[in-house]
Amino acid sequence: MTPLLGMMASGATGSKTSSYESIASATGSGQATISFTAIPATYKSLQIRAIVRDTINYGSATTIGLNMNINSDTGSNYTLHRLSGNGSAAEARGVTGEGKVNFERSVTTLGVTASVFGAIIIDILDYDSTTKNKTVRAFYGVDANTATTQFQVNNFSSLYLSTSAITRLDFTVDSTFATGTTIALYGIKG
User: Fold this and answer.
1) How far apart are CA 165 and CA 129, in angstroms?
2) pLDDT of residue 63
3) Domains delineated in the chain
4) pLDDT band at 36 (very low <50, low <70, confident <90, very high)
5) Neighbours of 153 (CB within 10 A)
6) Residues in contact with 11: Cβ distance below 8 Å, sequence separation at least 6, in sequence order
7) Apex CA 153: angle with CA 148 and CA 156, to 5°?
8) Looking at residues 100-121, what average pLDDT do you find?
């Protein structure tokens, strides 16, 4: 596991680290939405790297996850597929007709050990294409550092049913982003 964490921290994924360029980043501190707008169409793919914590109380949260809307689209244009495990059980889930990409069980919440965040890496392939739907894939995990079942590792994919080029990404959580949340957007050269 340590080599994987080191590779994630370095930005290396089997290719040159110079093929990644920082586009923008934002830090959470009580806001409901973090947005990246006017995303340039100069890359092959996009990657989002984030550490996320929600200010909601764990008991009142429904999906406990980072949410993403593409191009401000809240219509039923997203499909989701998730395979997760928590050390004692595995779960597979698939849904269609969603109004957002919900990276379910990807963040920590109030009532969880302070300064513990969920970590997520999201890839959006061929984001600037105007001839095909967009594939989103993610790998993420969260450890609440408690006896609850809010510790997960997840392999995730989604399909955004639109051929429009992606120029905007909006991120939300169930309540607001806790201080220390960081979301960074990278462009991957082809």
Assistant:
1) 5
2) 58
3) 19-188 (2.60.120)
4) very high
5) 16
6) 17, 20, 186
7) 130
8) 85
pLDDT in tens, 143-171: 766 655 557 789 999 999 999 999 999 99
* C-alpha to C-alpha distances, 8 to 5, 50, 130, 190, nearest whole angstrom: 5, 11, 30, 20
b/e 53-90 (16+ beta carbons within 10 angstroms → b)? bbbbebeebeebbbbbbbbebeeebbbbebebebeeee
Across the strands, what pairs with 108?
A: 53
Give the separation between CA 151 and CA 107, rounded to whole angstroms. 9
> What average pLDDT score do residues 102-117 get?
81
Confidence of residue 102 (pLDDT cuts 50, 70, 90): very high
